[in-house]
Amino acid sequence: MRSLITTLESEYVAKVKETRQLPDFRAGDILEVQVAVPEADRKVYTYKGVCVSRGNKGPRSWFKIYNVFPDAGGFVQHFPL
Description:
The chain is an alpha+beta fold. It has one domain (23-80). Helices cover 22% and strands 46% of the residues. It is built from 1 helix and 4 strands; from the N terminus they run αββββ. Strands 1-2-3-4 form a 4-stranded antiparallel sheet, with no helix packed on it. It starts with a helix and ends with a strand. 2% of the residues are buried. One of its GO terms (cellular component) is ribosome.
């Protein structure tokens, strides 16, 4: 059963990579991410910061950005790929 799930995940990742291009980045790179929030009438928020880590786990891949605001301090934001 595990090998079937792994096969399906790898096929899904290959299909997604064909349809959209993801930039190649690693931990330590400076990123700018724009996120549309549906609860706020599709308002677009921009997060800019240093990529702290990246997890490559097929369709469940993610990355974390360390963002610093002058008045509120720093925080880590978690984004799915």
